[in-house]
Amino acid sequence: MYFVPELCTLISLSEEARANITIMKDVAVHTGVAPANRESTLTGFINQINTYPQVRQEMGDKGLKFSNSLVMLNARVMPQ
């Protein structure tokens, strides 16, 4: 079983953080990735994580690992 970290943890910003323009700009940089770049960004993120021995050790202790590739599935584009 493979997990994508962004889909495994529920993250919520406090109202104070949402009101802070600087924080929201920083969040937008990481969440506002264009669809064309999303695959390479996620693949790069996973490759970067996989280079850390401590992460591999901790994940291995739990019987988990990150795949080097994204899950491929068939999908349709919904009309706008």
UniProtKB/TrEMBL annotation:
Alphabetical list of InterPro entries matching this protein: PAZ_dom_sf (IPR036085)
Protein name per the record: Uncharacterized protein
Native organism: Dreissena polymorpha (Zebra mussel)
